[in-house]
């Protein structure tokens, strides 16, 4: 396992690579191992995202968890930059309940890259975010993407 770190507008982010794929993004961990070409690319893409020059990440990821967890992360990854979907809309796509989608979204191991901040509650209601700073971080990410018109 190798971990690289980048400072961002939402805090210090640590990107974890295992087996040639990004497996986690966490707030505040220290670097571990070497900065591989994949980690260097992930850091470059995160910087470009925060500078509004990147609207879609292009990195190999490996979502640990059940087939359901991976299906939810795939559905979340399909939400376009600057747009949102509700838990209910994702439930329709995946064939599971909105509550199950909410739990899977909260367990997303690669926030920002798998953009769970783009998932809203019923009626577009602003709800939690698993990353550091919770809803405040979610609001910052949505504003960065120009989705602030959806917010109060």
UniProtKB/TrEMBL annotation:
<feature type="active site" description="Nucleophile; methyl group acceptor">
    <location>
        <position position="116"/>
    </location>
</feature>
<comment type="function">
    <text>Involved in the cellular defense against the biological effects of O6-methylguanine (O6-MeG) and O4-methylthymine (O4-MeT) in DNA. Repairs the methylated nucleobase in DNA by stoichiometrically transferring the methyl group to a cysteine residue in the enzyme. This is a suicide reaction: the enzyme is irreversibly inactivated.</text>
</comment>
<dbReference type="InterPro" id="IPR036631">
    <property type="entry name" value="MGMT_N_sf"/>
</dbReference>
<dbReference type="GO" id="GO:0032259">
    <property type="term" value="P:methylation"/>
</dbReference>
<keyword id="KW-0489">Methyltransferase</keyword>
<feature type="domain" description="Methylguanine DNA methyltransferase ribonuclease-like">
    <location>
        <begin position="4"/>
        <end position="61"/>
    </location>
</feature>
<feature type="domain" description="Methylated-DNA-[protein]-cysteine S-methyltransferase DNA binding">
    <location>
        <begin position="67"/>
        <end position="147"/>
    </location>
</feature>
<comment type="similarity">
    <text>Belongs to the MGMT family.</text>
</comment>
<dbReference type="InterPro" id="IPR036217">
    <property type="entry name" value="MethylDNA_cys_MeTrfase_DNAb"/>
</dbReference>
<dbReference type="GO" id="GO:0008168">
    <property type="term" value="F:methyltransferase activity"/>
</dbReference>
<keyword id="KW-0963">Cytoplasm</keyword>
<keyword id="KW-0234">DNA repair</keyword>
<dbReference type="InterPro" id="IPR023546">
    <property type="entry name" value="MGMT"/>
</dbReference>
<dbReference type="Pfam" id="PF01035">
    <property type="entry name" value="DNA_binding_1"/>
</dbReference>
<dbReference type="InterPro" id="IPR001497">
    <property type="entry name" value="MethylDNA_cys_MeTrfase_AS"/>
</dbReference>
<dbReference type="InterPro" id="IPR036388">
    <property type="entry name" value="WH-like_DNA-bd_sf"/>
</dbReference>
<dbReference type="Pfam" id="PF02870">
    <property type="entry name" value="Methyltransf_1N"/>
</dbReference>
<dbReference type="InterPro" id="IPR014048">
    <property type="entry name" value="MethylDNA_cys_MeTrfase_DNA-bd"/>
</dbReference>
<keyword id="KW-0227">DNA damage</keyword>
<keyword id="KW-0808">Transferase</keyword>
<protein>
    <recommendedName>
        <fullName>Methylated-DNA--protein-cysteine methyltransferase</fullName>
        <ecNumber>2.1.1.63</ecNumber>
    </recommendedName>
</protein>
<dbReference type="InterPro" id="IPR008332">
    <property type="entry name" value="MethylG_MeTrfase_N"/>
</dbReference>
């Amino acid at each position: 396992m190798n971990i690289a770190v980048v400072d961002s507008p939402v805090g210090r982010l640590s990107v974890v690579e295992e087996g040639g794929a990004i497996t986690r993004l966490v707030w505040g961990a220290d670097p571990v191992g070497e900065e591989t070409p994949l980690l260097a690319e992930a850091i470059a893409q995160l910087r470009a995202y925060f500078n509004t020059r990147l609207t879609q990440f292009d990195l190999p990821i490996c979502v640990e968890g059940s087939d359901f967890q991976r299906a939810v992360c795939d559905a979340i990854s399909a939400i376009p930059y600057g747009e949102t979907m509700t838990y209910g809309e994702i439930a329709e796509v995946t064939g599971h309940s909105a509550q199950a989608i909410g739990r899977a979204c909260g367990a997303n191991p690669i926030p920002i890259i798998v953009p769970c901040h783009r998932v809203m509650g019923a009626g577009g209601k602003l709800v939690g975010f698993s990353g550091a700073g919770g809803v405040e971080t979610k609001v910052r990410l949505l504003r960065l993407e120009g989705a602030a018109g959806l917010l109060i």
